[in-house]
Structures are given as C-alpha cells and as structure tokens.
Amino acid sequence: MRVAEPTVERLVLYYRLLMQLHNEERRVVSSQEIGEMLGLKASQVRKDLSYFGEIGKRGVGYHVERLYRHVSDILSPDRVWKIALVGVGRLGEALLGHKALRSEKFRLEALFDNDPAKIGQVICSVPCYDSEEMTEIIREKGIEVVILTIPAAAAQVSADRAVAAGTVKGILTFATTAISVPEEVLVYRVDISVELEKLLFFLKGRMA
Amino acid sequence: MRVAEPTVERLVLYYRLLMQLHNEERRVVSSQEIGEMLGLKASQVRKDLSYFGEIGKRGVGYHVERLYRHVSDILSPDRVWKIALVGVGRLGEALLGHKALRSEKFRLEALFDNDPAKIGQVICSVPCYDSEEMTEIIREKGIEVVILTIPAAAAQVSADRAVAAGTVKGILTFATTAISVPEEVLVYRVDISVELEKLLFFLKGRMA
DNA sequence: TTTTGTGAAGTTTTTCACAGCG
DNA sequence: CGCTGTGAAAAACTTCACAAAA
C-alpha cells in the first residue's frame, strides 16, 4: 500500500512524541491529545495511524508503548544504510555533532572535503577523504546515501561524482541549488533560506 | 489574493535560478526551460508566475531581468525585520556563517546562549546575551523573528521566553520537538532528522 | 509559429461525520 | 458512553489542453 509523504513526515513526529510519553510512563493517549501536542487535527492523526492497521482501542485511545513500537517498526529500515557526508565545513561539522546523525538506522562510513588540512584526518571517528576520490571510495565502501553540506557551486559536481559510483540510491542536500540526478536516485532537500523566506513572506501578508 | 505555500517555496527557487541566469547574461527563458532546470512541469511554472500578473511574452518566454526583478519584488519584505538567534552551539554558529543569514531582508540584532563563556561576547559582530534575559532584551530591541538552534529540551522554554516579549511574530525552529505558541505567532520548522527519516523510508519502499 | 495564461480536469491531502466497537 | 476507524465530502494543489497574443 502506498503511503503519502505528508503521512510519513507526521509519523516521525508521532514517534518522537510517543518516545517522550513513554519515558514519562504515560500509558494511554487519544488522537485528540496527540493532535493538540503536535498542532494537528485529531482526524488527521487517526487517518495516518489507520493506514497501518487497527492499533487503537475504541472508547479508550492508543496504548502508548504499543503504538510507540508500532510506529517504530513502520519507520525502521530493513537494514543499516551506509552513508557519507560531503563537505566538512561549519554546517557539516554541526551535523556530525547533531542528534540526527546519531541513529542506528545508518552508519557514517566516510567524509569528503577538498581542504588538505582535513583530508586524511579522522573527524568524530570517521575518516575524511579527498573529494576527488569520491567515486572510487563510495563504490568500494558500497555507500548508498550521501549527505551534501557544500556550497551551491560545488553541489552538482559532488552529486555527479557520488552518483557515478553506481551504489548511491538517495541524497540529502543542504545546498541552495537544484541538482539533477538520474530519476532512480531519491533526493531530499533541507533548505534553510527557503524556510526563512517563506516565514518572512507570510509575515508580510499577515501584517498587511 | 491568497498565495499558496508551495508556490512561495518555488518562487524562491525561481529567484535563485533567475539570479544565476541574469549573471550569465541570459536574456530570455521559457517556462519549459525553467521547469527542466528545477525539476518542475512547465505548466506549474507558468501557473505560479501567473498569480502575480502577466509577466511573460507569448511566443517568446520570460525576459530574465524583468522576471528577476518581479520575483524579487514579490519576495521582498516591506521593511527590514529584526531577528535574534537563540543557541550559539555548532548549529547556531554554522548558521551565523551561512548564506541564509546574510540577507538585507533582516538584521541580526542579538544572540542568546546560557554558556557563560559566550555571554557578553560579540560573535560575528553580534552581541551574545544570557538566555535568562531574553524576554527583556527582545522587547527592548523590538525583535520580531527568532531562530531557535537549541536542543529539544530547551525549545519550549526558549519559545515561551521569546513570545513573552510581545514583539515576536515568527519563529524558525531547528529543534526536533514541537513547540506550542499563540496562534498569531507563525512557526516554521527545519527538521533534519525528519528529512533523513523520510529518505530512508521511501528508499526501503523502493527496494522492496 | 511559438509560448504564455488560464479555466477545467485530475490528483492528492485533509477534514467531516458517523458507524462500529470496546 | 467515548474514541477509533473509515467512507464520503471538501479543500488544496497540480496538470492538462487550448485560446490568445506576440
């Protein structure tokens, strides 16, 4: 069954909330309460959860631990993905220390940069290689997901080198430029400027 | 006229592309070409642009410089917003150096942190204050937009302090937790973990 | 002829409203 | 009774297809 992207996005939010509720030893929670805590309609919460089977109890709500494990299973990959991070600048380093990269769902196997001071170093216990050698190293290591934390100007070249390895199935890019890749490669984008621009645009509209 | 959020998001992409085309001294561009460069359908591009008046020339396309100025005007705020950044950790510092914060659309007036080593310092020519004093300083300076680059545990407290000033109209949060604010405050979220999780979820689906 | 601008059609996503079950 | 699960309705967003303009 096809699950929509907005639903998957919210599943991650449910997952986090349930983890927290579970730690607080909360036993039961209703769609209404989940909605209030996350800023969603209760019907939206129920619809999302219903795609994966009947997990709640009518008249009662959802059993926190059961739902937590359920959502966790839905989001669990069937194996550990090998990933690489390209661009060990400020943003790349911030990500290395970020919660998001401390997950058992993948293992960070390589860093790439073109700064000679960084090439050959081991940073946060991950070896840093020369960007020029990206294609070979990604292929050798069988890396399947690449995170790009590089300036716009370098994004397309890096994407091409990564894709050329033939092992890369997904890219998460922070670059403020579009990259073109074969359609079998899945690309997600995190774009800080776009979010700021949207915020300012709609603020302007509200003031008017 | 109400403009949809996905349209505003794409306007930022058009803006960037047009800036680049303008620098390359490109004179004219068609919706077809814009679409190919950004991975969008030509009809989508035309529809987006048509919301703001007839700006293209039939049989010819869009005049790059004219369209660039046009999109730029649409996205321009009517004044410079005063902003503050809360949390001068790795992510906060990465943002301070990031292109996204070098914009004439706003002026970064204050940083906040609870690390005594940072409080009182001037970082990237912006003064850093104690988080405890956030409400007063935000009110004094009339800050309207706050960027939160802090751990989940601190997000709600910081949001509350910022909102308590009464001047804050928008929040951009990088925290991996939901924050609740009065509904007149606009919140946008940049969530790295969510994007990574989505990528892995849909990769799993593709492999199956 | 070429390419825009745009109603209409199609698709996706959200919300409603209530049957169904504990 | 209370709250879930879910078809059906509504809303939001995208794509089509073609008239109109350069």
Give the topology, please:
The structure is a homodimer of 208-residue chains.
Chain A: H1 5-23, E1 28-29, H2 31-38, H3 42-50, E2 62-63, H4 64-75, E3 81-86, H5 90-97, E4 106-113, E5 122-123, E6 126-130, H6 134-141, E7 145-148, H7 152-164, E8 170-173, E9 186-189, H8 192-207
Parallel strand pairs in A: 3-4, 3-7, 4-6, 7-8, 8-9
Antiparallel strand pairs in A: 1-2, 5-6
Chain A binds a DNA duplex (22 and 22 nucleotides) through helix 3.
- What do we call the CATH homologous superfamily of the largest domain in chain A? NAD(P)-binding Rossmann-like Domain
Low-pLDDT stretches of chain A: none
Helix proportion of residues of chain A, in percent? 40-55%
Strand order of the main beta sheet of chain A, please? 5-6-4-3-7-8-9
Number of helices of chain A: 8
CATH class of the largest domain in chain A: Alpha Beta
- Give the name of the CATH architecture of the largest domain in chain A: 3-Layer(aba) Sandwich
Our Rg estimate of chain A from Cα atoms comes to 20 Å
Q: How many β-strands of chain A, per DSSP?
A: 9
- Shape category of chain A: globular
Query: What structural class do you assign from the helix and strand content of chain A?
Result: alpha/beta
The N- to C-terminal Cα distance of chain A equals: 44 Å
